[in-house]
Amino acid sequence: MASATGIPEERPALISENAEEEPLLGHAGGVTQKENHSMLTNLIAALVWSAIFSNKLIFFSPHPSGLALTDLQLLNSAGVLLTTQAILLLQPTHTASQKRQGTWTHFAVIVVANLAFIAAFTIIEINKASHPETRFTSVHGILGLITYILIVLQAAVGVAQYFFPTLVFGSVDNGKRVYKWHRLFGYFILVMELATIAAATQTDYNVYVLHIRLWPVLLGALLVIAGVYARIKKHKLPVFVREERETPRERSELNDMNSPYVCLNCWRARLPFRRPFCSSAAILLDTASSSSINRPPTSPKPVPNVKHIRDNADLYSQNCINRNYNALSGHPARIKALADEATQLQRSLNAPRSKIKQIQTAIAQLATAVAEQERGLSLDPDKNEELHALHLEAKQLKDASQATTLRREQCLDEIQRLALSLPNLTSPETPVGDVPRVLGYLNYNPTSPPPYLAPPDPSRNHISIGTSLRLLDFTSAATSTGWGWYYLTNEGALLEHALIQYALHVAMRRGWTPVAPPSLVYTYLAEACGFQPRDAHNEQQIWAIEQSARDQGRGKPQRCLTGTAEIGLAAMYAGQEIPAAQLPLKFVGVSRCYRAEAGARGVDTKGLYRVHEFSKVELFAWADDIPTTTTTTTTTTTSTTTATALFSEILSIQSEILSSLHLPCRILEMPTADLGASAARKQDIEVLFPSRVHNNNNNNNNNNNNNNNNSSDNGWGEVTSASICTDYQSRRLGTRVRSSSSSTNNDATTRFPHTVNGTAVAVPRVLAAILENGWDERVGGVVVPEVLRGWMGGIEVIGKKAG
């Protein structure tokens, strides 16, 4: 019960069979309650049982009671009935809302059942007061006492692990572990209750007074056990979960993985088998298709817009080509073909299913006739043969239907995998190709570059400046951690914190809510945000946390270090429904970021420009692109804050921060080749780094002006970006917005919100830009931007240290 965390209802776009296959407690049993069946049917069943209990002909015996004229003599039997119903209610359904409803209903029913048991025990003790010598002398009495004690203990554990897991067990995870045993023990208690009832038929009171026979009680008990057994998710119970042990064959395969003759791509991707000379693209497909294996049962299921892909296959194919995803350009056509095949298979199932129903009706009629002939001892061999032939035909039709159903499910799974691998559609504002479009400049006039660029001075770089001023220490970091790490010391550390505080100040002033997100997330959530563990060249991009063999054997999802706070912020509403009236939601998050950054390295990426760990302030927002109307008793307001409006707001925040830092910038509309998977549109702001400017013109000094213009074109480096991701992330994270136009949940509609994200400050690159552009040769130091001085104790210039 501690596991019922409340992941909202999933609505796969493809077809109802795509509903959650692995609910909270495991695979659904054969008698799982229908998705849309109301709890009223359960209440009606309870009323029917109540009517049966009011009759003298019952399977479960009443307990002897001194208050024979009251209904209290049936309390034990009512408690058993309620316990059974509570067990059935707790079994998982397809949606989280039903899980929560089932959990609370289970709790309520168990409370009533336990009250019934307590009342019955009290009555028993009152009856036994007149002849205490008979207390606990029979098997029935001893079993009853033990069962009562177990019921009390079970209730206490259930309440503790659901309501107070941290207080009692130390953590929620410990409570979840206890929950599996709690379920198993509940089934054992039910068997003990039924055994106590069966033992009651052997008591003197029953033998001489009630005369209830043992066989109807056993029959009723077996029916109860059979009904409950069909609903138990056995592979999730602790006695059915076995630790995965390494077999000799697996050990051999692991040794092969370490062999120099194993395919390098397979070894990098850690695939559990060998394949010679696999391509990187094949590995990416394998890792993408297997990434969902370790998703927890309660994780939100991705819902790609398969219908739109199927209806616009050519559009999606060309989009893949434009965005440099050529290997995926054939997926849309494949999705369309598979969808057509799945539709045809569904239609082909209608005829055999109808035929099977007809045969089943004929078998029932024929079986009745054969049974009547057997009672009359006049057997007709033809009817027996006909009955056998019908059974055989029904079996053949069922086998054929199962094969067709299996193929259809394979088609749907393949459609889901292919659809999730496609990049987002591209905005009309995005230039096609690999050349960005310059939109404008900040603190920079392209016709009059800064004087310190004439001529370019490679020595004016943040590494030498930061080292000489004792702000940066790369040598110690190389010793402690390796290449790509650094120490910020003295005013360098103060600059980092000042940049973070200033960025937060600007964002919060505009109504953005501060958040400190986790740096560790589940890997499947990072992938849902568009961050793949490896790039198109099979180079590592995300650092994964190593799992123990025990966790791997139990199928626990893997975690990874986040490369940006965007992932943690997006995951805040994974699997949740956001009321439309609450949108837009705007968060600004501060986090440490971790990136493998396995790409090429050179002069332009030395120092702080490309590092493995850094601090960053990230802006992330959800918006509903459908205007929403909120009506109160006095006013009616319409919200029109769309993703595009938030995108502009993020750009405004970025421009304000960089402008106030007096950094020369240019704003770019990024082309399709640089968008990545999730963004539909992206704008970058680049800063001019003097150390990155290279004079490629060796002509005479007469052309110095032109030389400066040309040289400054190659000195830009990205410091911020802003992206519109439409519903790409929300579809993969299961985040929905619920319309507020209806007052009831049943009539309200849901849709996927659009997400927008942008960098407020990437500390290392901005810090490097401040060192290079703020360097003043006359004073031998770096001028601190005025907006940062308040967070640096009023320091105006960072100069050399004495000694």
How many domains?
3
CATH first level of the largest domain: which class? Alpha Beta
**Radius of gyration from CA coordinates:** 35 Å
User: What is the general shape?
Assistant: elongated
Assembly state (oligomeric): single chain
Helix content: 40-55%
* CATH homologous superfamily classification of the largest domain: Bira Bifunctional Protein, Domain 2
Q: What topology, given as strand order, has the largest sheet?
A: 1-12-13-14-17-9-8-4
Number of H- or I-type helical stretches: 25
* CATH topology category name of the largest domain: BirA Bifunctional Protein, domain 2
Provide the β-strand percentage band.
Answer: 5-15%
**Average pLDDT figure:** 76
Q: Main β-sheet: number of strands, strand sense, barrel status? A: 8 strands, mixed
Distance between the termini: 64 Å
User: Low-confidence runs (pLDDT<50, min 5 residues)?
Assistant: 1-33, 56-73, 240-293, 697-711, 742-747
By secondary-structure content and strand pairing, the structural class works out as: alpha+beta
Report on the structure:
Its main location: membrane. Residues 692-715 are annotated as: Disordered. Helices cover 46% and strands 12% of the residues. It has 803 residues and is an alpha+beta fold. It has three domains: 16-240, Four Helix Bundle (Hemerythrin (Met), subunit A) (Up-down Bundle); 252-421, no CATH class; 437-798, Bira Bifunctional Protein, Domain 2 (BirA Bifunctional Protein, domain 2). An eight-stranded mixed β-sheet has the order 1-12-13-14-17-9-8-4. A three-stranded mixed β-sheet has the order 7-15-16, with no helix packed on it. Strand 18 and strand 19 form a beta hairpin. Helix 2 (75-90) runs antiparallel to helix 6. The longest helix is centred in the middle third of the chain and has 45 residues, at 331-375. 35% of the residues are buried.
